[in-house]
């Protein structure tokens, strides 16, 4: 027995992944009028989903906004519009349109084993939480898949005012589950952001944020290896 009584799951790259529709980028051009090719689109996706670090050059104001991006919806919008501007999206209207697509929870794709893992953890008698650095409500993604009822608590950074790797957000999440940290396993794709939970006594299991069709059982494998199901 592991002694775990609850599991916290990261959202992006763990339970769901943002996989843009190619139509979002159709005929999108940079300042020189060049169409953004596949490589530019992949780099743009990376920059829009990277969990840590600064993906584009930033002045002092942009840096403040970037580091506060998951603490309010306004800073989230400002930060990612800056990323888009410095990633070759020259037109302001196109930046707004793309931000709307990237920040729509219904545009996220669920990993093949997410529902089965959440159900198995619940069936094992453990409490389930979703802990995400995010600037908007992701609950509709779970509702669309019919799995919102498998989650006991959503702890979203923009709602609680703390973001990973700030230890305060892990304390808030474990408290929301009603459990001491040492009874909680954190599952996520970032050793730096999610793995910081170990500093307050949580266990940690890491998954790779691979494309959805390239990771059919990665979440299941990680949770099984941790001994909770």
Keywords:
229 residues, alpha/beta, Rossmann fold, 5-stranded parallel beta sheet, 37% helix
Question: Would you kindly provide a written description of the structure presented here, covering whatever features stand out?
Answer:
- The chain is an alpha/beta fold and 229 residues long.
- It has two domains: 6-17 and 107-226, Rossmann fold (3-Layer(aba) Sandwich); 22-103, no CATH class.
- It is built from nine helices and seven strands, in the order E-E-H-H-H-H-E-H-E-H-E-H-H-E-E-H.
- It has helices at 38-49, 60-67, 73-85, 92-102, 114-123, 139-145, 157-160, 167-177, 218-225; strands at 6-9, 16-18, 108-110, 127-132, 153-156, 184-188, 203-206.
- The strands form two sheets. The chain has a five-stranded parallel β-sheet with strand order 5-4-1-6-7, sandwiched between helices. The protein has a two-stranded antiparallel sheet with strand order 2-3.
- Strand 4, helix 6 and strand 5 form a beta-alpha-beta unit.
- Helix 2 (60-67) crosses helix 3 and helix 3 (73-85) packs across helix 4.
- The protein is globular and about 60 Å long.
- The chain starts with 5 loop residues before the first strand and ends with a helix.
- The model has no long low-confidence stretch (mean pLDDT 94).
- Residue stretches low in confidence (pLDDT < 50, at least 5 long) are none
Shape: globular
Highest-level CATH class of the largest domain: Alpha Beta
Order of helices and strands: EEHHHHEHEHEHHEEH
Organism: Tsukamurella sputi
Protein name: HAD family hydrolase
GO molecular function: hydrolase activity
Keywords: Hydrolase
């Amino acid at each position: 027995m592991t002694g775990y009584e609850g599991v916290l799951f990261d959202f992006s790259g763990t339970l769901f992944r943002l996989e843009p529709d190619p139509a979002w980028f159709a005929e999108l051009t940079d300042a020189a009028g060049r169409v953004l090719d596949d490589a530019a689109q992949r780099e743009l996706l990376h920059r829009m989903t990277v969990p840590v670090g600064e993906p584009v050059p930033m002045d002092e104001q942009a840096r403040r906004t970037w580091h506060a991006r998951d603490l309010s919806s306004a800073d989230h919008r400002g930060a990612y519009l800056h990323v888009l501007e410095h990633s070759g999206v020259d037109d302001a209207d196109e930046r707004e349109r793309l931000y709307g697509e990237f920040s729509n929870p219904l545009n996220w794709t669920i990993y093949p084993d997410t529902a089965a893992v959440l159900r198995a953890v619940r069936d094992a008698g453990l409490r389930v939480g979703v802990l995400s650095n995010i600037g908007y409500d992701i609950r509709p993604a779970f509702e669309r898949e019919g799995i919102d009822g498998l989650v006991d608590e959503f702890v979203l950074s923009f709602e609680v005012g703390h973001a990973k790797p700030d230890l305060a957000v892990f304390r808030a999440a474990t408290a929301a589950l009603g459990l001491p940290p040492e009874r909680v396993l954190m599952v996520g794709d970032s050793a730096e952001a999610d793995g910081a939970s170990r500093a307050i006594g949580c266990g940690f299991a890491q998954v790779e944020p691979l494309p959805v069709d390239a990771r059919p059982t990665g979440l299941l494998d990680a949770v099984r290896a941790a001994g909770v199901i």
